[in-house]
Amino acid sequence: MAATPPLTPAPAPAFMPAAALPYTPKYHVKQGRNTNTITIGAWTIQSTKKPILNGKEIDAVEKQLNLPLPEMTFGNNHLRLTYSASEASATSSSSTYPSSSRPQARDSSTAATNIDINNTVELRFDTLEALAGVATGEGWEERVGGGVKVSMADKWKHRASPQSFLTDTPMASKPVKPHDWTFSTCYAGSVAGPSTFKPSPTHSLPLPLLARQDPVLDRILFYDDVPLYEDELHDHGESILNARIRVMPHSFFILARLFVRVDDVLFRLYDVRVYHAFGSDEVIREVSGMECTYDEVKRRLERPSDLSPLTDANWVNSVMSAITSSATAAVSDNGSASKPWPGLGKRVEVLVLPRADASAGTGAAAQGDVEGIREGLDEVRIA
């Protein structure tokens, strides 16, 4: 009997470049004290890493976001990728181009008038924009979802007069600034320019290509790991957001990951993967969020007495991916959330890069999507 064909077509893999592209992108790497940059083909990729915010900056950002910041907030860190359609047109017609015509990295202080917004796309992972996605305000648990109580919460609420562990002063029944204390942002990066990401049921990441380790074809031209924020959740776990990028001769790949561990309660992962093959006109983004109870993950330890793997985001990711039970139901059993965390699930999106002859005026709406967040934050950014 012939096999029954699938009801839906299998997702089409992303553009897989051949061993030799129609052109070989030239690249140039520049390393600075706080900023590293690679210019390759039509792309300028810049990573900026600076110390955590100082007291004055913290006060300004907390006032702007109405959010108590994580213990380690790298508020001036970002990963920025700028694509120039005019450079793409030039490089597609020749395998080389003069250094003077290479696209230059966009500085945060560069005036918008210096950039052709109709032919330029900017992808960005930024600390302050990520924190702007953290739920705040009275009743955010019911309005947004994903509220979490620490394992001792039930014991605390049954005490007639809760006391702090260090003093006899009763603890406040409500925080001064209600917010998601796990900093579980659903931030997938920002986009500015005439293009934007749109859902695609037919695209997928080229996992075999990304897993390949050919010393020549897959050599790393540029790599960086940009920390955005970290917090130990009042000694009840950790919340870490970082963005990593690697650039190879054929493509670049980004993994921005939020890793949340609340001891004896739950684990959360929110992964944003971005892939682009040089020579193609598409950028593929896969966004996925998972949540499992602490005990579910802990049971997968090879040695129950060794808890160190529970702090390894890669190990936790492999375990959570293998768990098939309903994460939402498991958390509800612990009384941690009246409404599911909105980061759960998976989606694949595609951004089509503009052409050099794109019509004027098409980029205003897409660029406006992130301007509301950027306006106030730029005022407190370090020069």
Automatic annotation (TrEMBL):
Renumbered residue ranges of the record's region Disordered: 90-113
GO terms (BP aspect): TOR signaling
Comp. bias intervals (Low complexity): 90-101
GO CC annotations, alphabetized: cytosol
Signal sequence, start to end: none
Compositional bias (Polar residues): 102-113
Family membership: Belongs to the TIP41 family.
Protein name: Type 2A phosphatase activator TIP41
Source organism: Kwoniella heveanensis BCC8398
